[in-house]
Amino acid sequence: MSTTGAVPTAFFSRAGDVFTPLRPATSNWSPDMIHGASVCGLLARALEAAGGGENFIPTRLTVDMFRPARTSPLTTSTTTVRDGNRIRVVDAEAIQNGETVARASAVFLHRSAPPPGEMWTREEHPVPPSVDLAPPSDHPTAPWFGSDGHPDGWSNSLAGHQGASRKRMWTHQLGVVEGEAPSPFARAAMIGDATSLLTNWGSCGVGYINADLTLTLCRVPEGPELGLEADNHVSADGISVGTATMYDRHGSLGTCVVTALSNVQRQIDFTDEAHTPHAMR
Question: Is the distance from CB of 194 to CB of 280 less than 8 angstroms?
């Protein structure tokens, strides 16, 4: 944890190859766990360092979170699976106390000219809050939430949007590592984990905990602010699948998918107490 009185602006501090979780990384599910956004951001950072650059765009990230990541130091390791002229594939692991707590893989594709012709796309795309309501900031800000049918549109209140309607979010996320500006890819990875929040959030709160995240991008985000809008939720036998569209002020840029398990014994009801959306894992 941070040894200073200042409010942390990132999820981890760094000493060499060791990353120590800071207070904002703590999960709402348990005080000795860190949430998925921090894990996804740390693994995306490692993957991009190994496979990014030279006109390669991170286009697919998959993170498997199969063990609880605790509030103790972590390290990361990467393996290059393929280093081709047009496609790169890199794997990564997050390691804690000698055990792998999460693994990830990323595909990086080389930029090129698009083929000719017109293609179908959905007519309705997510719309961010106005710049008057949520002006751009150089620093992380409180997230905005929206839900279909809400009388006030966007607000900072989780409790105010609890219900069975479609959810959306707009946020300038904290950084991954203290003293580093997160890359657009790392920002997308951290915010993508909130797909579980938006797609599994119902009239009684959130009772599903996601086991993974798959993020697909046609481009990296522009600017520090990003949004998610829920597209679908399907569930059976305590297992759910949720999909969401990621967007910035220039339009939609990707799709997020999560699978989740029922965690009803630790149901989070936002009408009972204040919670922060980045701490949903």
Answer: yes
Give the pLDDT score at 5.
56
What pLDDT shows up at residue 52? 87
Residue 127 included in any domain: no
Check residue 122 and give its pLDDT.
86
Which residue ranges of the chain lie beneath pLDDT 50? 1-4, 274, 276-281
| Residues 33, 69 contacting (CB under 8 angstroms) | yes
| Cα distances (angstroms) measured from residue 40 to each of 34, 47, 86, 244 | 11, 10, 25, 16
In Å, how far are 146, 164, 168, 173, 220 from 161, measured between CA atoms? 7, 9, 10, 20, 29
Q: Is position 118 within any domain?
A: no
Q: State the pTM of this model.
A: 0.92
Q: Which of 97, 28, 99 is nearest to 36 (CA)?
A: 28
Instruction: Compute CA distances 255 → 78, 181, 229, whole Å.
Output: 24, 24, 10
Per the structure, the complete domain to which residue 38 belongs is given by: 10-110+141-279
